[in-house]
Design goal:
globular; 4-stranded parallel sheet; 157 residues; binds 5-nitro-6-ribityl-amino-2,4(1H,3H)-pyrimidinedione; alpha/beta; Rossmann fold
Amino acid sequence: MPRFFEGNLVAPKGRFAVCVSRFNGFITEQLLGGAVDALVRHGVNDADIDVYRCPGTWELAGLVRRVADSKQYAGVIALGCVIRGGTPHFDYVAGEVAKGVGQATLTADAAVTFGVLTTDTVEQAVDRAGVKAGNKGAEAAVACIEMVNLYARMGAK
Ligand code: INI
């Protein structure tokens, strides 16, 4: 019989940080609401949730890295929204946030999850912020609870 290692979705000990960018706020505020709602409905005390805001998704990875390195949190959730325009700006912002948050995921002791939308259209973003395709903020929050519990079970650093 194999041994399975996975995290459950019961609120763990420890604090959570939600890092959210203000750009495209009509979307990111929905992601933030979904993330906080998911944490609380899984049993996380809302006094154990801190929200950090930054101007845009470009700034998000730097914020996530510093928040994770503060060692105050068991889990850090990154939320943002990059919508493709007519210039290469999208590619730079989307590429850097994926790389930067990815790096924090690899190096931080905290569990770091990625709720950053990178869409071609406003409609695709709306769909992923609580309309047709769920709420990616909530999904990132639930994934964060699972990874915190998995790391705790592994005794991982
Ligand atoms: N920031 C976003 O979060 N989403 C976007 O779609 C976006 N676009 O398209 O411009 C965006 N730009 C701002 C960027 O994140 C920085 O805040 C800005 O460049 C200042 O450093």
